[in-house]
Write a structure and sequence with these properties.
CATH topology of the largest domain: Rossmann fold
Structural class: alpha/beta
Number of helices: 15
CATH class of the largest domain: Alpha Beta
Largest sheet: 6 strands, parallel
Strand content: 5-15%
Helix content: 40-55%
Order of helices and strands: HEEHEEHHEHEHEHEHEHEHEHEHEEHHH
Distance between the termini: 42 Å
Mean pLDDT: 87
CATH architecture of the largest domain: 3-Layer(aba) Sandwich
Length: 384
Amino acid sequence: MFLKLLKIGFIFLFSKKILKPPKKKKVLIIGDTEKYLNIFLGKDYELFSKNDFELIHVWGEKINLYIVLKCLINLKFKFTDYCNEYIQEVKPKILLSVLDNYKFIYDLKKNKYQKKILIQNAYRFGDTIDFKINTKKYNVDHVFVFSKSVADKYFNLLKCNVHVIGSFFMNHLITKIRKKKNSKIYPYLYISVFRKLNQSKFSLNKKKKFTEAEKELVKNIYEYTSKKKKKLFILGTNKNTFKDEFDYYNNIFQNKKNWKLLKPKKRSYKYAYEQIFKSKLVLGLDSTLLYESFAAGIKTIFFDYRTKSNRSFGWPNKFKNTGNFWTNKRSKKVLKNLIDKVSNTSKKNWQRIFMKYKDELISIDANNNKFKEIFKLSLKIKST
């Protein structure tokens, strides 16, 4: 309890304070995300203008003191109460969020004239979506998800309209990137899942469990690519932790040279997507970007080495141990055979594989046309 109060105190101390009450707007976005906002406001979408939305900052960057005061007067002290008071002030037609895996989003109240719209922002696993949901209590209108399998899961948890669109970001970028000339300059691209783990948040045992699978995998892949006399390219996760990430892999490879860590651009989410289009073969553990690579039609292999940590490949599907482009067997021989097999698969056969598994794994809706249509219809609904 003391640590929780201390955390709240720090957030309050370092956040930007807003004194004025929020204005009435058509759209209330819960969870600020610059990447999504730039898309919503961009010329390809023009879903609403800069004057049409209000934003609730959920990570403490900004706090509205007027709303805080209303909560205190009414003896309401939860963050959910803060959000509900915000909704009462703004009176939006649409509540929009990409925090589909946060339970408090489902707790937020709305009236019958308001629409709550959620977008799945990353691939989900059993430990990120299966919170206790009472379908009579929670009220969501539209959820946009990666696959039919995830849609079926939501249908069992919520009473709402679920739309299969795939990855919102990949949908937005795929047409633009395909128009460019993307030479296949990376023979093998590994998607890093490196994290600089906070020791206060992760125990040594949990930290070891989180990293040991990747260390084993990337070491085996490097051994394979070295025998092929090819350089292994690794897509870095974060520009701000690049040095730590480089040291992490350099230690695994014991200072050997036939590899390169690609440094992400600080404010460009496009960079990662552009790199996978430059790759002949994309490999990794369970990153969302792997699924997005598969959706883009790029040869992709999933090494499901963390299956025991409730992060099994293709959740909520239950696939066999090894398939056309995945395995959970931690074996060098299986790894070699799978990479050889996928590398030698023709474009035509790879397309057949994609069509077979896209409904279960990740679909595609270029330019997010389905989302645009439903969002615009929701804005037209008359309120009291």
